[in-house]
Amino acid sequence: MSDITLEQPPTPTAGRRHDHHATRLLWFVLKRLGTAVFVLLCTATVAFFLVRLSGDPVKLLLPPDATAAQESALRTSLGLDRPLFTQYVDFIGGLPRLDFGNSLVYNQPVSRILADRLPATIELAAAALVVTLVVAIPAGIFAAMRRGRGSDHAVMTGVLLGQSTPPFWVGILLVLVFAVGLHALPASGYGTFAHLVLPAVTLAVYSVAVVARLLRSSLIDVLSSDHIRSARAKGFGPLKVVLTHGLRNASLPVVTVVGLEVGSLLGGAILTERVFSWPGVGQLTTEAISNRDFPLVQATVLFFAATFVVVNLLVDLSYSFLDPRVRTSR
């Protein structure tokens, strides 16, 4: 009986594995983009119909003694006399071109109004995010390293207060203390760093509490793992163990929450901007709702929805770089 040598099939090369991973990642991105478009379309549809339940904007745009003929003429000039389905089709058809129509109150393209107000909101949200990271990360690390001690309880008490206090009340309290009492910072306005401090801190209080609490919990779980005990056995100091070996492994849920908090900071800016008269998209939204400015309300709602969708997509993509297990599971 002759010996038969079975030829082993060639193993895939590193290049093929890389191409396969790139293809799966591309499909993942395309699928998420498709989901994002569907979510935004549903949001646009809901916003379009719900905003029209608030009443007739013509009643607010004209004086109380306006005649029925004047109301009819204004309604025709604004295009509100057309069938509702026709208005909806025009609204959806303009979205790919970022054409949201003209504001009923300002009589300007909505996209131009948003572009004027957007920098102020981004500035406020970015400042609040910096405050969140600068305060929450050290607080979470400190509380995890001092678990069960008095300093840990003090940090967690502050976190609990920050997470349970309404942001608008925090803003009013800060105004009373630092603007009215100490005359150290302006109570409202826009344009200087001093104007930015109080609204940024107000907006960041809740996010600081959420991120610090989650980071502490995640770090405590990681610090009880085997590789952390091995690092301690090698003689590494507690701080080096946490920063070098623990923080990255504990960062995955924190990155998720930070990403969601970015959207929350932009969305939460509505009340904060109102308290501090900050000229951003948040204050624009409240003005548009009060004036029943349909195109402007629809555009601002879509802006906040798109922010959440984009941030969630970026968070999902960041998982591949933070945790290789996520990368191989796709």
How would you sum up this structure, described in words?
- With 330 residues, this protein is an all-alpha fold.
- The protein contains 14 helices and no strands.
- Helix 5 crosses helix 11 (251-276), helix 8 runs antiparallel to helix 11 and helix 12 (281-291) runs antiparallel to helix 13.
- It is flat, with a radius of gyration of 26 Å.
- Residues 1-8 have low confidence and may be disordered.
SSE diagram, text form:
Blueprint: H1 14-51, H2 58-61, H3 68-77, H4 84-94, H5 110-145, H6 150-164, H7 167-181, H8 193-223, H9 226-233, H10 238-249, H11 251-276, H12 281-291, H13 294-322, H14 324-329
Helix pairs in contact: 1-13, 5-6, 5-8, 5-11, 6-8, 7-8, 7-11, 8-11, 9-10, 11-12, 11-13, 12-13
Task: Write a brief structural summary.
The chain is mainly alpha-helical and 330 residues long. The protein has helices at residues 14-51, 58-61, 68-77, 84-94, 110-145, 150-164, 167-181, 193-223, 226-233, 238-249, 251-276, 281-291, 294-322, 324-329.
